[in-house]
Specification:
By secondary structure, the chain is mainly alpha-helical. It contains 15 helices and five strands. The chain folds into two domains: 275 residues, Orthogonal Bundle (Fic-like fold); 77 residues, Orthogonal Bundle (Arc Repressor Mutant, subunit A), CATH 1.10.10. The model has no long low-confidence stretch (mean pLDDT 90).
């Protein structure tokens, strides 16, 4: 990007904070490698979005959000996996309940934020409301959920003295976030949307406007922006899995923008993530279609219980963890009938029993879950 300047360090007495330059400007993209990657990313994103039109996407949204929630939270140090994300709280190991709560909050925050797009633009207000849900009742819940910070924060190190990065002082937050919001919503600005959201994500992480939860909110904003601009009809692209697998590169590329004004390298990393994630998403949807076909064939062997099995499978596509009580509820029959059906589904390799923290057995639609782990 021509003439890009990330910002400068400003003296705050015994430490220096990084003050980013405003981003609401008419930028010019000059790096041909960035332009080529952008073209490729747009193409793959379009292919992924096509699935929204001919697959019952509502069934699978919860899986995409759960994967994003677990991977984005994992970057911050939580250990919850996909199976646990769908478990009831009493089924989760005592030592992982806090992590589970954080993942549940992420799922709630994403669902609520996507719903709010019908009422609110991509804005500071939307960001604050999303942050408030994300931080409710979990670690960091006392650090001003939904409110931009009113004190200095830092990244890495135990104190400001040994911090690896110190964001701008709190007095500049409103001004910087207002600039970010104007840039996001400037329809007259000809910059391609994938470049815009890449720059917005970088700038948000640099501003670090909250005392806690900035990383998760910043990653969540990527999907929100793409949906708000109509690039995706549904929230089915999440980059946290890519960022988590390339965690060091993720942080290094963000840092390099500030130290070398190298925004192009960040764009290349970001667009590579979009391409790879869109490709994986397409493979996942192809796998779902094949799984559905094989399910129809497998369930036909269940005779009189095939219809009940289909009701359970439909529920499992939304929430791939289930117990006997939920099976009973899905088919409208007794627990005895539910257990018989579960036994049939285990034989058909549809359900797999999981370790549980309570007496009642918990079962997973493992083949389906595995599609989202690739």
């Amino acid at each position: 990007m021509k003439d890009f300047k990330a910002g400068q360090y400003i003296n705050q007495g015994y430490y220096k904070a990084f003050m980013p330059e405003p981003i609401h400007s008419a930028w010019e993209i000059t790096d041909m490698e960035v332009i080529q990657l952008l073209s490729k990313a747009d193409r793959h994103l379009g292919r992924l979005d096509m699935y929204s039109a001919y697959v019952n996407i509502d069934l699978y949204i919860s899986m995409h959000i759960a994967k994003e929630a677990t991977q984005s939270s994992r970057i911050e140090g939580t250990q919850t996996n996909m199976e646990e994300a769908f478990m009831k709280k009493e089924d989760v190991s005592p030592g992982l309940k806090d992590d589970w709560e954080e993942v549940q909050n992420y799922i709630k925050a994403m669902n609520r934020a996507v719903g709010l797009l019908d009422e609110l633009p991509f804005s500071s207000r939307l960001i604050r409301q999303t942050h408030e849900i994300l931080m409710q009742g979990v670690r960091g819940s006392r650090k001003m959920p939904g409110i931009f910070r009113t004190s200095q924060n830092w990244i890495g190190g135990a104190t400001l003295s040994d911090a690896t990065f110190i964001p701008p002082p709190h007095g500049y937050i409103s001004e910087l976030m207002s600039d970010l919001e104007k840039f996001a919503n400037d329809e007259m600005n000809p910059i391609p949307d994938l470049i815009k959201i890449a720059l917005i994500h970088y700038q948000f992480e640099t501003i670090h406007p909250f005392l806690d939860g900035n990383g998760r909110v910043g990653r969540l904003l990527i999907t929100l922006y793409l949906v708000s601009k109509g690039i995706l009809r549904e929230p089915i692209l999440y980059l946290s899995d890519f960022f988590e697998r390339h965690r060091l590169l993720y942080y290094d590329n963000l840092t390099r923008v500030r130290t070398h004004n190298d925004i192009n390298q960040w764009y290349k990393f970001f667009l590579t993530g979009v391409i790879e994630t869109a490709k994986r998403g397409i493979t996942t949807f192809d796998g779902i279609l094949q799984l559905q076909k094989s399910m129809d064939e497998r369930l036909n062997h269940l005779g009189g219980r095939a219809q009940d099995a289909k009701l359970v499978i439909e529920r499992l596509y939304i929430r791939p963890i289930i117990d006997a009580e939920e099976v009973s509820e899905a088919i409208g029959k007794s627990k005895v009938s539910a257990y018989k059906l579960i036994a049939d589904l285990e034989k058909a390799a549809v359900l797999t029993q999981l370790p549980s923290g309570r007496r009642a057995s918990v079962y997973a639609f493992k083949e389906y879950l595995d599609l989202f782990k690739g």
